[in-house]
Amino acid sequence: MTNSWTDIKNTDLIVVMGGNAAEAHPCGFKWVTEAKAQRGAKLIVVDPRFTRTASVADFYAPIRQGTDIAFLLGVIKYCIDNDKIQHDYVRAFTNAPYIVKEGFGYQDGLFTGYDEAKRDYDRSSWEYELGPDGYVQIDETLQHPRCVYQLLKKHIAVYTPEMVERICGTPKDKYLTICKMIAETSARDKVMTSMYALGWTQHSKGSQNIRSMAMLQLMLGNIGMRGGGMNALRGHSNIQGLTDIGLMSNLIPGYLTLGTDKEVDFSTYMSTRGFKPLRPNQMSYWQNYKKFMVSFLKSMWGPAATAENDFAYQWLPKLDVPGYDVLRTFELMSQGKVNGYFCQGFNPLLSFPNRGKVTASLSKLKFLVVMDPLQTETARFWKDEGVHNDVKPEDIKTEVFELPTSCFAEDEGSLVNSGRWLQWHWPGAEPPGEAKHDNWIMAQLHMRLRALYQKEGGAFPDPIVNLHWPYRDPGEPEPDEMAKEMNGYVVSTVTDPVDPSKVILEKGKQVDTFGQLRDDGSTACGCWIYSGCWTEKGNMMARRDTSDPGNTGAYSNWAFSWPANRRILYNRASADLDGKAWDPKRKLIEWNGTAWAGFDVPDIAPGAKPQDVGPFIMNPEGTARLFARAMMKDGPFPAHYEPFESPVANVLAPKIRGNPAARIFKDDLAALGTSDKFPYAATSYRLTEHFHFWTKHVWVNAVLQPEFFVEISEQLAAEKNIQKGGWVKVSSNRGSVYAKAMVTKRIKPLICDGKTVHIVGIPLHWGFTGAARKGFGPNSLTPFVGDANIETPEFKAFLVNVEPSNGPATS
Amino acid sequence: MGLQSQDFARISATNMRPPDVRHDFEVAKLIDVSKCIGCKACQSACLEWNNLREEVGFNTGSYDNPHDLTPNSWTLMRFTEWENPQSGNLEWLIRKDGCMHCADPGCLKACPSPGAIVQYNNGIVDFVSENCIGCGYCVKGCPFNIPRISQTDHKAYKCTLCSDRVSVGQAPACAKACPTGAITFGTKQAQLTFAQTRVADLKSRGFQNAGIYDPPGVGGTHVMYVLHHADQPQLYAGLPNNPRISQVVELWKGLTKYAGMAAIGFAAAFAFVHGIVARRNDVSRAEDREAEHVIDEEAARGRQA
Amino acid sequence: MVVRREEERTTVDRYPGRVRVNHWVTAISLILLALSGAALFHPSLFFLSGLFGGGANTRALHPWIGVVLLASFAILFVQMVRYNFWQKVDTQWMRHIGEVMSGHEENLPEIGKYNGAQKIVFWLMTLLILVLFGTGIMIWYEYFGASFTIEQQRFGHIIHALAAVAMLLVVIVHIYAGFYVRGTMGAMTEGKVTGGWAFRHHRLWLRQEAREGVIDERQTPPRRHTVGPAE
Amino acid sequence: MLHELSRRQFMKAAGAGIGGSVVAALGFGGAEEALAQAVRPFKLTGTTETRNTCPYCSVACGVIMYGLGDGSKNAHPAIIHIEGDPDHPTNRGTLCPKGSALLDFVHSETRTKVPQYRGPGEREFRQISWGEALDRIARLMKDDRDKNFIKTNQDGVTVNRWLTTGFLAASATTNETAFLTYKVVRSLGILAFDNQARV
């Protein structure tokens, strides 16, 4: 989220698209109902299904899953055509005026530089035209044919209301009503907020779905505003935290990235991370990258990380591919190239696409370790559960360990919510039976490995035996110790270069902010964006002050919000070029002539003059990007591509299947189904009564939604002679499941490109352990293909067939 | 009944009206159907607070789970898919069902067991399990079909409006939990005022018939609804248009009760008086003798036959 | 051999043991039903539930007693129905009911085993018991709560209540008649009535019985004098 | 720190006390009174309050866990009720159907309670000790790492990666656990490292 849950109360228009806030985030959705009740805000829901969010919406329109880009680019076109954009904002705060290199183009659904064999682009032409001064050439008038604004206009020209209806199946009149409502928020005193979640990410072009809305929000001047922004609802309680701390293949805490094989040493590594400003006076905050990186390395290897050994840069693994994401890992596993696997509170047997492939892959492991407070299906993937897990245990040679862990109620520590709030919590009881805290388990593993390497030696023991382990009880580090590590501390006293008697940073003290971090090894910091969470003043994440000056919904003294306790990102953009709030009623920060001040921590240097310095300080441009340059794998602009399994061909580029830049492995490509055998467009989702695969272990929730079902329209039910509450068999080219049929008016067939498209809804909460009735998950059906940029699987759009059945008993 | 009797407005099956001297605030729960997302947090909170659990059921092609109120499930979301003929829009009407805590409770009227159903001065209608005899009369008395009789202990159960929480100044569990604020709790007066603002908001959004459901037929309720279509309550999973205690029940618990008692009393009294004043109907010596003749005569006839 | 000449008096057998047992089972059931029913019928009588071990037990027992009543009365019905068909003479007799109530039966027509009033009681009881049982089933919540709609049950309740009142009235008449008409109780206790009673109230019946034959149980004179159709 | 005493909590504690006395004043206190049964005694009076965060979605609602006992040595704490934290700016005391039922998550019958092991081809789990489990896992890890660790690639560039073992982290663990996990996993050179943010 750029904003926060409590900030949503400030909005005028909520667009829920690519998400289902009411069902997946009911308590956050409260701020939508507040905005509606308190300030007459309107709620728009665009979804293939009439969801429980739609049930309280002012306006609902259906859309075929996987066509959001066409819809959104169409809205941008509408806004431009009807002069409903926030001109000053667009001109000053986005790269609309920037001129793009000669040679960039887009044709037949492809951008310049496409290599079909590699399914990848040579992105060199997707760049700005630089002037002799090394800065980007711009045209304030936005008239230059190669300026981003003109290129965008040209790029989206095709997305007329008629085309949108043809692609998305959204009736033109409904679509235009929505365009009109959205366009209204281009006014300076009107804002719209976008609430989205996995309905946009779980596509082979998920990142571009989100970019499309972000671009629209920029055109309307709604980024950085109270009640505006791009608000990813996010999934798990600490999914934000784990991403921040970089528990992903290619990440280092604080969104730093691992080196690649090309970055042979630290200087080469840093050279590609120079982040020189692309416009005069811009902050280009990543210029501080080295300070964060060195401080991180110090927190990893402490004294062993020295200037001499490049602070142990080489001890980090290097990537030979963009990343070993889960799809790649399970592909390797299926080829027998992975021997050991750990699942710490993760249930891949139900969470990853193409369950058949997941089972086969896990069966090839030598050992599997599951750490979980609940008895997961993954820990039992080898168990014969009849139709619900049809395997032969004797053929599966994998050694499996199930390690019982504590749950939230027995844990202490911090979680980061989608509003980037780090909130501390306390344990109320001991773990049951022999269950242990994850910290204990990870520490015990490390200590054992360290001992083994010290005793026996072995492959490159240095990073293990030298891992910085300064904990009171090395066998079970306490949460406060790690929290302080992440905040950062001073390794060696730093004095003022001019007057050495003046101590700037005192050895052993916690740093107050990442501004104090050094690139010479005198500071250590586990996760720079968390600096300030546990300072000398104590645990800022445990703060419980509920005051909210100006009733902005910021609650600045409640817990801690990264970065630097900032509650609304890009809040500098809430003020105009002179530093005055676009909308006085929505004042956030303003330029008082000498400094920025207001209700939130300014997202800019306090003394940065409004005319000089752009609001998007993380970008070398200082502005937001409508044109993403080479930073997106599948295009600097979003473009409509069909899902890999689609009931209709891509009307814009019939030859192209799916996202041309999305990676798909050979076998998985072969495993895709076609609409002749699997005519119905399926999508998967969560229900409000359940949380993923946890609450089926919870008696009460099992009662509230006891049994696996699929949702189909009355028309499809009639066509297939399917009874309400009767059994159906749903199959894709990869597998099949049995489910009860929920026949509903809330799903209606769509007409796309003149063809009737039936939608099949498949919720994901059932498995073969827990209190709820045994059932299946959609991942028995879903295709093994991910987003081009981040490899999130395409769970939201795939093809199935549906037939009446007598249920699993008879199978 | 002790001190607390002064806290009762009504007590079932008793002739003496409770003193009703303590003037408590009337409380009310307001359910704003237009804000409800049908998340079932209220059901969840209710089961948890009251330490009740339900059998894990089945899916029957609807979101209503469990499928009906039970002795353990005192509240339930009822889902209705309705295509509005005026706007042509689909509306998913979701109503939280449960005890309405009527000002004039039919259950209490029908109950034959003294003190098994009580109404506090704050308006809460409560079942006192200890006095409940499990006859099921309350089921017949209720215009909303709410009470359920447990087949385990044969006692009637329903929403208590969390009388235990209210008695210590807290809101009912469902009201506290409700994520969107569709359920609110307060004094009836304040709730009615607040409900007006909600109705105004709905009218501004085109729901011309939006209104408050506080049915006069039962003297008003302490659980009220804000409905987008207050003119057609039955749309919301059969919410009664104009609920009132059944005439049959009124007759049974009214006239019949008194007339019956009178008739029997009169008959008994008549017999008693007659017994005293009337001439003895007894056999006389003469009749004994005549009997002998008759016997001889008939016996003789018998022999000749 | 139903008319006996004993030392002191002459008696006529009216009810054999099996009928008497049935009658009393029925009678006791009726009383228990009246008491338990009354407890549930009116708050002022709820204290009666104490006799059955509290309200819950009263609620549970009442219908079962009803079942016993139905069974025993059914047998009684079979035993008595043939004497209870209406005849002209019953109508004549009913015209003189006032005299009966004032203790004069001189001018009544001779009648058989039962008089009009008794027959009316018999048929009323039959009817009411059927109604009470039928409606009783409808409102027997523990077992039949699900079998009838709430509206049907509401009607069941009111009809049951009205029928119960009627039943009580009939029972009061029946019992009082037993007391008022002296010598009647013996019929249901020892099973016999005096010849005089039979002559006064059921002369026709007395004649029939006598014609069947008379047993002389007197000790003197010692010679046995037996009579009967055998000779 | 098992639980911290916040402003509201103090009020609450006091409130419960007052509540109790109110109940008594109303006469619902005396169990001997038949009608006293009408109102169930307030079940949270005297429990220990601990603040926590709902572990489900990323709205991260504040919850209060009500624990058995007053924290004294011999009273083993056990969560008996969980309710929304009225102080929390986001949820203001409300909870969704999952959050409202957190108690059943804590006490779920299918929670893991002992370490279990399943050998190759076996049909069932069997219990093992933590010691056995961890020793065995560490051994399997080291053997695999020593065998398959890649120190340099074909071009002789130091790459220090271990690709034959992977680690999925949980996006429901705390930041502190996450960071400790990160240190342990990365120090081994593991690249097949991911969490739910990916899916």
What do you see in this structure?
- The complex is a heterotetramer of chains A (811), B (305), C (231) and D (199).
- Among the domains of chain A are: 21-235 and 622-631, Dimethylsulfoxide Reductase, domain 2, CATH 3.40.228.10; 242-319 and 487-529, no CATH class; 666-810, Barwin-like endoglucanases, CATH 2.40.40.20.
- Helices cover 23% and strands 15% of the residues of chain A.
- Chain A is built from 21 helices and 33 strands.
- In chain A, strand 28 (727-732) and strand 29 (735-744) form a beta hairpin.
- Chain B contains eight helices and eleven strands.
- A four-stranded mixed beta sheet of chain B has the order 9-2-11-10. A three-stranded antiparallel beta sheet of chain B has the order 1-5-6, with no helix packed on it.
- In chain B, a hairpin with a 6-residue loop joins strand 7 (148-149) and strand 8.
- In chain B, 31% of the residues lie in helices and 17% in strands.
- Chain D is 29% helix and 19% strand.
- In chain D, the strands form four sheets. Chain D has a three-stranded antiparallel beta sheet. Chain D has a two-stranded antiparallel ribbon with strand order 4-5.
- In chain D, a hairpin with a 7-residue loop joins strand 4 and strand 5 (126-127).
- At the A-D interface, helix 2, helix 10, helix 13, strand 12 and strand 13 of A face strand 1, strand 2, helix 2, strand 4 and helix 3 of D.
SSE diagram, text form:
The complex is a heterotetramer of chains A (811), B (305), C (231) and D (199).
Chain A: E1 13-17, H1 21-24, H2 26-39, E2 42-46, E3 59-61, H3 68-81, H4 87-93, E4 106-107, E5 110-111, E6 114-115, E7 120-121, H5 148-156, H6 161-168, H7 172-183, E8 192-196, H8 198-201, H9 206-219, E9 230-232, H10 239-244, E10 251-252, E11 256-257, H11 266-271, H12 289-301, H13 326-334, E12 340-344, H14 348-351, H15 355-363, E13 367-372, E14 399-404, E15 413-416, E16 421-425, H16 438-456, H17 462-465, H18 479-487, E17 489-490, E18 494-495, E19 503-505, E20 523-524, E21 534-535, E22 538-539, E23 560-561, E24 589-591, E25 596-598, H19 666-670, E26 680-685, H20 699-704, E27 709-713, H21 714-720, E28 727-732, E29 735-744, E30 750-752, E31 755-757, E32 759-763, E33 798-804
Parallel strand pairs in A: 1-2, 1-8, 2-3, 8-9, 12-13, 13-14, 26-32, 27-29
Antiparallel strand pairs in A: 4-5, 6-7, 10-11, 15-16, 16-23, 17-20, 18-19, 21-22, 24-25, 26-33, 28-29, 28-33, 30-31
Helix pairs in contact in A: 3-6, 3-7, 3-9, 13-15
Chain B: E1 8-11, E2 27-32, H1 41-49, E3 75-83, E4 90-98, H2 106-110, E5 117-120, E6 125-127, H3 137-141, E7 148-149, E8 156-157, H4 163-166, H5 173-177, E9 183-187, H6 188-204, E10 211-213, E11 223-227, H7 247-277, H8 285-304
Parallel strand pairs in B: 2-11
Antiparallel strand pairs in B: 1-5, 2-9, 3-4, 5-6, 7-8, 10-11
Chain C: E1 3-5, E2 10-13, H1 17-41, H2 55-80, H3 88-95, H4 97-101, H5 116-138, H6 141-144, H7 150-180, H8 185-189, E3 192-194, H9 195-201, H10 203-212, E4 214-216
Parallel strand pairs in C: 1-4
Antiparallel strand pairs in C: 1-2, 2-3
